[in-house]
């Protein structure tokens, strides 16, 4: 009885919190454009589904928190799209940063925001979608929706999952979240530690398949990565590509670029924030001859030393031209961006020093294909070393490519399980 009362209490608190969040988000949307996108988008979800689907449709449902999880799940999504051509695919995002960029993806028949996790929304959403198979990527566990999936005995999998001991699933107050995990018929984890943690809460339907991102980035090698403007800009120079940078990253990069006396090196910076104010501030802070992507058609781009990419969607291809890569997000606290994208092209990588939650970064540092820095002096030292020592630069890059190759295969395991 004690645990029953406890679970009901926690459930009440959770549901009250969801309704409170709905009110708070509606208020914040008046002042924040990104929040407004999510609020307005979620208000249209159910009507969009009603207009797109009918009761005779066979459906698959893929859910991703944001863009990173979408990229992680994409190789599985593509395989299922091929294997189930007569099914309609519903793709949901929670974050505007995922939805706004991939709302027109060909992988799905309809792309919508996931409604807030109220009991009523869960029932209405599943009444419309009624998926034969649901795939959640990495995390974003929503108890009401998942419990409703389980109540209806609808098949669901969690792929590329990564668990940490400090998460609510493993705390005394996490009963509701633990119960939600039981909606998944099987969980495919990225590592053994996640499997071990799940066993501590008596969840045993687990396979350590690895991270589907390895399959995703490895497939990049079989694609056409040619970008003529980058080829023209680079010429025969050594090229350093700094991807997904934030202001904290740019602060130490700018010092190095401005003080670099190596004239045979060119720099490409692809900031995470491409708002015009931020881009102009970055450009003005550089004393090297600098051009923007948006200016490339009106100038002789080969004459410039720095190229700032003020657009999205082409970074993975730009990395193919890198001799050295810098990946942003780990100097500050925003979170390290995707280091596997440059790694697959066989280049050494530099990151900031806040990478504790990123196992691939820890491994690549241990393998000596990646280097962590926290200030201008450190970044200058490692850049200069990699610029001048060609053999070591190639050796470290090969180490990263081999790491990618070694860890592919998660998609095959997941698809084989689904086919059983």
Describe it.
It contains 18 helices and 14 strands. The chain has helices at residues 2-28, 33-52, 67-83, 96-102, 119-129, 143-151, 175-181, 192-200, 212-218, 228-234, 247-259, 276-284, 315-318, 340-343, 359-366, 376-388, 390-406, 410-419; strands at residues 59-64, 88-93, 110-113, 133-137, 155-161, 186-189, 206-208, 238-245, 265-271, 290-292, 306-308, 324-327, 349-351, 370-372. Strands 3-2-1-4-5-6-7 form a seven-stranded parallel beta sheet, sandwiched between helices. Strands 10-11-9-8-12-13-14 form a seven-stranded parallel beta sheet. Helix 4 (96-102) links the parallel strand 2 (88-93) and strand 3. Helix 3 packs across helix 9 (212-218), helix 6 (143-151) packs across helix 7 and helix 11 crosses helix 16 (376-388). The protein is globular and about 65 Å long. 41% of the residues are buried. The model has no long low-confidence stretch (mean pLDDT 94).
């Amino acid at each position: 009885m004690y645990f029953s009362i406890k679970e009901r209490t926690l459930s009440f608190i959770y549901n009250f919190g969801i309704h409170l969040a709905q009110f708070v988000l509606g208020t914040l949307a008046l002042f924040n454009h990104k929040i407004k996108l999510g609020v307005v988008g979620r208000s249209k979800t159910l009507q969009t589904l009603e207009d797109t689907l009918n009761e005779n449709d066979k459906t698959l449902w893929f859910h991703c928190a944001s863009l990173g999880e979408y990229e992680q799940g994409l190789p599985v999504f593509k395989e299922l799209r091929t294997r189930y051509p007569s099914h309609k695919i519903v793709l949901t995002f929670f974050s505007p940063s995922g939805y706004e960029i991939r709302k027109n993806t060909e992988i799905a028949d309809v792309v919508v925001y996931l409604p807030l996790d109220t009991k009523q929304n869960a029932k209405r959403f599943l009444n419309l979608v009624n998926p034969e198979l649901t795939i959640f990527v990495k995390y974003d566990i929503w108890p009401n929706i998942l419990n409703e999936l389980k109540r209806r005995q609808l098949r669901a999998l969690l792929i590329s999952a990564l668990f940490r001991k400090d998460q609510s699933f493993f705390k005394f107050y996490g009963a509701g979240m633990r119960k939600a995990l039981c909606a998944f018929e099987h969980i495919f984890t990225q590592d053994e530690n996640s499997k071990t943690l799940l066993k501590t809460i008596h969840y045993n339907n687990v396979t350590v398949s690895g991270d589907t991102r390895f399959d995703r980035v490895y497939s990049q090698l079989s694609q056409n990565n040619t970008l003529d403007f980058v080829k023209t800009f680079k010429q025969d120079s050594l090229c350093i590509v700094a991807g997904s940078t934030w202001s904290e990253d740019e602060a130490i990069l700018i010092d190095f670029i401005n003080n670099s006396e190596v004239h045979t090196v060119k720099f490409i910076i692809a900031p995470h924030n491409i708002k015009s104010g931020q881009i102009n501030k970055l450009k003005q802070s550089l004393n090297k001859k600098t051009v923007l992507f948006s200016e490339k058609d009106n100038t002789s781009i080969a004459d410039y030393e720095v190229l700032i990419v003020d657009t999205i969607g082409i970074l993975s291809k730009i990395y193919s031209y890198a001799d050295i890569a810098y990946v942003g997000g780990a100097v500050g606290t925003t979170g390290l961006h995707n280091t596997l994208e440059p790694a697959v092209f066989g280049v050494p990588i530099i990151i900031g020093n806040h990478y504790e939650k990123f196992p691939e970064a820890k491994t690549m540092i241990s393998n000596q294909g990646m280097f962590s820095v926290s200030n201008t002096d450190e970044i200058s030292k490692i850049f200069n070393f990699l610029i001048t020592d060609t053999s070591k630069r190639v050796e470290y890059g090969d180490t990263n490519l081999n790491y990618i190759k070694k860890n592919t295969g998660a998609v095959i395991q997941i698809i084989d399980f689904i086919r059983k």
